[in-house]
Amino acid sequence: MHFIVWLIIGGLAGWIAGLIVQGTGFGLIGDIVIGIVGAFIAGWLLPLVGFHVGTHFVSSVVDAVIGAVIFLFVIGAVKRVI
Hints:
- The structure is a single chain.
- By secondary structure, the protein is mostly helical.
- The protein has one domain.
- It has helices at about 1-20, 25-50, 55-80.
- Helix 1 (about 1-20) crosses helix 2 (about 25-50), helix 1 packs across helix 3 and helix 2 (about 25-50) packs across helix 3.
- The model has no long low-confidence stretch (mean pLDDT about 80).
């Protein structure tokens, strides 16, 4: 059940991150997939650096959006270089 919640949060975060980071060119489905990956990255990385918003659903979405936005910026930068 926890995995399904992560997928939902990641999908929501990817959609929001796609709205924040314009011009990535991945489309809705691509942004959602990137959001899911970003949510996993944020779930692992943000506690390591000491960033913690809380434990509720909204704070999980905020963490995932941060991870997805960072991931979209990294992928966009790599995409421009290649």
